[in-house]
Amino acid sequence: MDSTPPSSSSSPFDLVSSALGRYIPRGQAAAPGPAGAPADPAGGPPEQDLPAAGPQEQILGAVNLDRELRVTHRNLEAPVFAGLDAPTGSPFVDLLPQGDVPTVTRRLRQVLETGEAHVARVQRLRRADGSELVVSMSILPAAAPQEGLTVSLIAMARRLHLYAAETAIGTSLDIGETAQSLAESLLAWGDVAAIDLDFAVWTGEGVTERAQDRIRLRRAALVPDRAWPEGYVTLGDDLPGEASRLLAQAIRRADTPQSIVVPDRATIERVLGSPRLVRALVPSDRSAGVACVPLVLEGDPPVVLGVAEVWRRADRPFADSELLDLEELVARTSHHVDLARQHQREHTQVLALQRRLLPRSGGGTIQTASVYQPTTPDSAGVGGDWVNSFPLPDGRTALVVGDVVGHGLGAAATMGQLSMEARALLSAGLAPDEVLEHLDETVTLLDDAETGLAAGYSALGSTCCIAVYDPVSHRVALSSAGHLPPILVSPDGRAGPLALHPHPGLGAEFALREPFGVHTFVAPPGSLLALYTDGLVEDPAVPIDEGIGRLSDAVASVHPWDPLQQAARRVVSEVMPARQRDDVTLLLARMIGYRKEDTATWRLPARDDAAVRARALVSALLRQWRTRDGTRDSVLLLVSELVTNAVRHAGGPITVRLIRDGPGLLCEVGDTGNGRPRLGRAGLLDDAGRGLHVVHRLTTRWGVRWTETGKVVWAEVVR
Asked: Quick one: which of 356, 458, 474, 489 has the fewest CB in 10 Å?
């Protein structure tokens, strides 16, 4: 073997020819290069070690381009390149499928500008008859003193193509991209390639053996990109039920998945038996033969994920060796399809959880709108951010936004747990700071390796912000665990972030833990509150304060009559960084509150006559509201029992509040006690606890919430 390195003056074509000498047929000279010099086969094996080769095995070609990307010289004389029309002066992109023109043009110009070669891109080229050739294309700067480019084309040798195809197919976890990569790789064996996947694979569901007559196939990939005849099954369409069953039966002979070849058009039409099925499955009149290769997931029994179809014209029948190559490629890549299916299932589960947590209607006292936008369409970019708003049983509304560390199913599971726990605790009457204390403990427990709950995932450092809006007093109680400050827009248009005490977040080390503070402020009707996650305002190119300022300006521009959901989408589009690096979440809440004539509040001293005074005040108001006699009697008895219990078991001033809300009446009695009323089983002669049983019978629901000065017992009655 000649080990002498090639001369530095060799052209790029000469260098490529030398490196690929083993593919030059024995007894034939290499095709001349652009300058007319023969290629040197040095670097290949000794001539006597070369296998016997025919003219069709010459696989190397080259095209020289000027700076306008037009052909100046060409060497495509090998039979394998027959049909590639590249006359001198024509644009090189005329050889490309239309969809590949932008990408390849960008690569060509990049090599022109930088002088750095772009090596071994798997590329399709168009023949004059519309068929395509798969090549390995390298783009090299032209040798001095020439300018322009040398594009080397290697008609893909089967083994090289198998390796390159498997490498390319395994680069994505998106089911559509994986199927498309497989279909593009199969074009080396035919004119049209299609991938039809079981619907369960397409949606990410679990794949199991099922009866053949229940299989449902959907077209997941189809190449090349061209206009197809009417009725043909294209990307995203389901195959007709009869076609799915025929394919399933054809590839499952003797209960074992096997490849089949239908060699000619007459046989295809006879097997399908219906003009409608022929139109649905046969890509064109010129298509005469098809190879169907099952995508099989190894197991006992093996499971068929779908079918790969390769179509050819009549003058190119399938050889046995080609069918073996097709089977090998599909077998090597079937596990990539299943990995993409599993990833799709995780993605679907995460999004389903996200949808369950998205806020619903805010009710009559508050309007809410939310936007959630994951980083990427796949599950690797979905998970950590969560947002929720829900009415509390006592008429208030809770607004919650959080950011769990990480992405994917682990982060989504933690997110769901924290969200549901926050909702349960808020509905039980706990204040926002008390809820965050419980969430902090939960995150710590989830990360405790000794408990076995961590499962390789840590949520330490997650953040959360909780706001509770009282529509009667128009006050908001807000607590934050390391979250970015919400933005408040007052009715007069002034906007800015709330001044919150910084906090390290959930799950901090014990020595670093700080108490969760409560920030209380007034939000008059017409105020707008924006809660968000850091993905909306964080941009490496600008300070975080600038991002928050831009968000404040965008929220301040929301008009009071703007539909809130449209306004939320507009704010996100205006503020979101140009390059999204994290999930984006925004929750807008427009405060409305109750009308003054629908609420009444009285403060009474804790004396024995408090119940009598409360009944008189409530009775007068109910007559003013024209409440039915039966409802009025129930409310008066309810108020009497609650006030009596407050005087007997608590102390300090007593607050009585009545709220008219649609079909219901909400009655609240507050005191300075800290004992929790509990409904227990009373004996026949017991006097204690009978008041709560009366309350329970008269109301549709009742409960307790805690305040800084004591507690409030609330109860709801249907008017």
From this structure: 356
